[in-house]
From TrEMBL:
The keyword Cell membrane does not apply. Pathway: Cofactor biosynthesis; molybdopterin biosynthesis. Pfam families: MoCF_biosynth. CDD domains: MogA_MoaB. May be involved in the biosynthesis of molybdopterin. It comes from Oceanisphaera ostreae. Belongs to the MoaB/Mog family. This is Molybdenum cofactor biosynthesis protein B. Keywords: Molybdenum cofactor biosynthesis. It comes from the Bacteria.
Amino acid sequence: MSHVATAFVPLKIAVLTVSDTRNEDTDSSGQFLVNSLIDAGHQLAEKVILKDDKYQMRALVSRWIASPEVQVVLITGGTGFTGRDTTPEAISPLLDSHIDGFGELFRHITYQELGTSTVQSRALGGLANHTAIFCLPGSTGACRTGWTGILAEQLDARHKPCNFVQHLVGA
């Protein structure tokens, strides 16, 4: 398979919370992701809370994709089916390639917790300009599931037989 590093490679990770109601005091999902990535040894590049506006999301994520200071973007929120949930529509056009298995695996893992309600998750992942982007639902539980069930391993260069680190700029 792919080359796997023998040492941990700290990544520069940006976190975006998409919410019309959360602020820094109430953003438990974004804070969970920040704490988790730091605890894992990665670096927080930036953390932002934006209203659910696909053009603001595209502008911010495009800036991160173009920056050598960001290798991974974690987005929480805006992946449901309400009229205000536009994260997939905002992010999909920016992707050079989709990581279909991310959403599939997220829904598979979540099925154990939520049953068939997991079909309403539009979690997605992809690569853009050698930057990995992962969109998770807005609940802290969903972020925990995504981080512990998928991302912690896939963002670790030591994970075998393969991981995303080799695909990222500057890694």
